[in-house]
Amino acid sequence: MTDTKSWGSTEFWGLGYSWDLQWLLTPEQKKLQARLIDICQSILRDNAVESDKKLLFPRKNFEALASLGLLGLNVPKEWGGLGENHTCTAMVVETIARYGCPSTAMCYTMHVGAVAAAMLRCHDNPTLQDLMKRLDKEVLIGTLSYSDPETGSHFWYPVSSSAQRVDSGWRVRKKASWTTSAGFADWYIVQTTSPDFGGDYSNLSCFLIMGDEVKAEPSQWDGLGLRGNQSGTLEVDNVTVPVDRLVGPIGDGARSNDEVVDPFFMLCSSACWNGISLGLIDITKRHTTAKKHVDVGLRVCDYPTIQDYVGEAIIDTNTSRAFVFQMAKAMDELTNDCDWSIHQDISRLPRSTVLHWMWQVKFAAAKNVAHVSDKMLHACGGTGYKPALGIERYLRDGKAGWVMGPTNEVLRQFVGKAALLGFESLDYWNQAINERLLHNELKKLDKSARRELAEKLLAEAAES
Ligand SMILES: Cc1cc2nc3c(=O)[nH]c(=O)nc-3n(C[C@H](O)[C@H](O)[C@H](O)COP(=O)(O)OP(=O)(O)OC[C@H]3O[C@@H](n4cnc5c(N)ncnc54)[C@H](O)[C@@H]3O)c2cc1C
């Protein structure tokens, strides 16, 4: 297998192509990958250092991505996009994170998720169609605003939101605790309760909100890593938007979430965590093969311990990459290579059938990056601890993997609970009664306490 990976005018100093899953890519996708590595080398990587130091939003990097047509990566060719599939999308995000800038990879992940939410429901919506056709030409960056300050990482439960039908369209209210690219994005897909939700938080809707309709506080943003991703607070303060800013039908929020927002977020963010793991291994290779210990006449890479660290990091990271690409391929097959026309039938939701696999993908990639970043720091020693080598920044960036919703605590519970008790037991919107728990607690009450409780409940029922 050819191993020559270029880095500007020289050979790449990290792992060569023989450690990449190149056989999964088409010739066209490989060409795109090589061009993307070029702009990572010449533009994105230097900007990543600046973004991290100064908390700068990576707009310049997005301009470079737009020059390759990457803002419309999944937009059909006849609309000016690249018409690419899930496999290519995972490759692009991994490449940006590995060779360029993890903050840009995360902002791009949210952009891809927002494009997917728009493409899913654009068939009878001229406003969405027009936006999708202008992404690269005008560098129009999108993002997803879901998480609510009152419900934390339970981003599917937006209690500080509402939407109302008014004469000229919809009045939308949304408070978000975290939104990547907040205040810098040109357009947002926001999730709110539906106009007719009547207290049922599973009844959600999505709206397109433009950059000049949101209030953000970028000056308040700070974080351990991904410092360029600007995931600050966001408010849509009772803004009235035209009728066709509703994305899909009323009540489509949960469907859109399971079919595209979650699958694309988990695919791309996992590719981002794997890209960071690979970036760490690349730096470790460069450092440990260059650093010598004069007393014993050996380089750091000559110690078997260091070889073991790198070997294990490659094996674990490639296990995670194989899982990401396996699921990307599965979604390619399910959707005819990301053909959006299949969704003209709005009940076609093929990606939703593998959502529980995407939970596992994200868990594995986020867990791996935490481990690999520790081990690559150990392999590089004190030099890795200093910012100049780059290990320290990638380590901080990778820490976001575990805590980003769905968090790894939530995901392993989803998987274990669904496997043991069935999917219905997940009860996202707190609607199912746990009879076992209820009866067990009631058992603890004596006669008079039971009577007191019963009377209280009867009074409450009468009042309601
Ligand atoms: C860099 C970054 C970028 C982000 N970008 C976006 C974005 O673009 N859009 C967006 O909508 N959101 C975004 N988020 C928000 C993210 O998805 C989470 O909502 C957020 O990280 C939750 O933080 P919290 O402090 O509220 O955590 P909490 O929800 O309070 O969690 C605290 C702890 O409780 C655990 N926990 C929570 N629920 C359960 C449960 N049911 N079972 C077991 N354990 C549980 C968690 O796993 C965690 O360990 C971003 C977050 C980060 C870090």
Description:
The chain has 13 helices and 12 strands. The strands form 4 sheets. Strands 3-6-7-10 form a 4-stranded mixed beta sheet. The protein has a 4-stranded antiparallel beta sheet with strand order 4-5-9-8, with no helix packed on it. It has a two-stranded antiparallel ribbon with strand order 1-2. It is of the alpha+beta class. Helix 1 packs across helix 3 (86-100), helix 3 (86-100) runs antiparallel to helix 4 and helix 6 (253-290) runs antiparallel to helix 9. Among the domains are: 142-253, Butyryl-CoA Dehydrogenase, subunit A, domain 2, CATH 2.40.110; 433-464. The model has no long low-confidence stretch (mean pLDDT 97). The protein has helices spanning 27-54, 59-67, 86-100, 102-120, 126-133, 253-290, 304-334, 355-385, 391-398, 400-403, 408-421, 435-443, 447-463, and strands spanning 6-7, 10-11, 142-145, 161-166, 169-179, 187-193, 204-210, 215-216, 232-241, 246-247, 292-293, 298-299. Strand 1 (6-7) and strand 2 form a beta hairpin. The longest helix has 38 residues, at 253-290. The site of flavin-adenine dinucleotide has 25 residues, from strand 3, strand 5, helix 10 and helix 11.
